[in-house]
Each structure stands twice: as C-alpha cells, then as structure tokens.
Known about the structure:
By secondary structure, this protein is mostly beta strands. It has helices at about 35-40, 175-180, 195-200, and strands at about 20, 30, 45-50, 60-65, 75-80, 85-90, 95-100, 105-115, 120-125, 130-135, 145, 160-165, 205-210, 235, 245, 255.
Amino acid sequence: ESISVLKDASATAIYGKESLGFNGTDATINLGTALDPVLDGAFTFTCWANCTNDSTNKAIICKQHLSTWTAPLYHDFTVQHNNSDLEIKTNDGSTYYQMTVDTGDAGWHFISVTKTSGDVWVAQVDDDASDTFTHATDWGSQNLIVGRTPSLAGTFWDSQIQDMAFWSRVLTSSELTTLFNSFNFESTTEDDNTGKVATEAGRSELKAYYTFDGTTTGIDNSAVNVYPNLPNGTIFITSDTNVHYMWNGTDTWNEVA
C-alpha cells in the first residue's frame, strides 16, 4: 500500500491552499481497512473536489464490495463524479443503490455524505443540493481507495482533492454549513485556509483527516500548534509521505503502520 501520487503544486489552489492532484492514469491512495468500523456505523464523509464536467465515472473514493467486479454488489461505498453529477453508490446485499446530486458548474465543490445508525443516507453538494435513500449496507472487506474504482477501467480521478475527513457520527447541518463556509474565498494566502476541518467543525468523533495539502512535508510534534485539540485516535496523512500518524489527544503525533 503506497501513495503513488504527489502534490500538484502547479494546480490552481483551492482558495489559497495547494491541493492534491491526481493524474487520471494510475494515481491512487490506498487507505486500507482501518476505517471499516467507522463506515459500519453512523458516519460523515466530507471533502473538497475539483469537478470537471467532462469526466465520466471518475471515482473520488471507493470501497469495492468484492475483489472482482461482480453484479449487482459492485460498491460498498463509492463517491464519483459523472459528467455534471455527483453519484454515491452502495448495496444492501442483493440490490445496488445510487444517489445522484447535480454539481452544477465545473470547479471546486464541497461534498458530504452522511449515514445514520438507522441507515438513512444523505448526499449533499455545497450547501444546498442533496439526495437521500434508506437501506442497510452489506459491507465487504476490500480496501478503501482514493482516486479510483479498483476493478473498473477508466475511473481514475483526473483532478484535485482537498481536506478529506471521516467522523463516526452524523454532522449537523450547521456543522456542514460551517465547513462549506470555512474557506476564505477572498484570500490568496494559504495561512487563511489551513486545517479548517480541525478548527472549524465539531471535533467530536473525528476519526480521519487527510488535508492533502501539498506544502506539508511531514508531521512531528510541532503539529500540536497547527491542529490543536484533536480527539484521541485521529489519523493524519500528508500528500508527501506514506506514513500515518495518530494523535494521542494531548500533544503528540505517534507514527502508526
């Protein structure tokens, strides 16, 4: 498992931040199965993605159900952009489900997907358009992959992603609005837009936070000054290294496998 994608420093920054660029050919990030317990319960997924409206079935993140592409149980949890639509795909063990939300214009969009403990799913783009369905998910044991649907050709993400995070609870509409509004649209300096998931949203039950910020070259104990008061167990990864660090809840990032 390795990160086969580097920062795209030449890409248009997201409101002052550098983003993680994917080449659309072979670049992916393998997050493994560490987040399986989070996905199995109530959870929230968020990220910013630079959506191009000429892309077809490009996966932002995907947990495929089986190691082979087997109908109808293709997806456990897939978020992809298809032309001008955001699509979220899951299965209940016998039937394939899809939510579709129009992303509108091409460019950067805030994406959120929530699932309650009662299996109510809601997908939202920016602060308005949304779709929902209700069904249990039959989870498999495949790895969670950023940037591609593993067994489906032509699905490599071909743009940028920024500030991806998972919580083991459903964020409130107010918290999602705060995240959407947390980037300073007028700023051209990175300092105004660093670590917004950590500093602007409720940090309760934040389980994974991937800034994908190209200017971060590594994490050490100095990170306490950048991401204060994160909950114990938060996982952090940068775009420049394959090393994960876990926050001890007080003052130290500890390297983990």
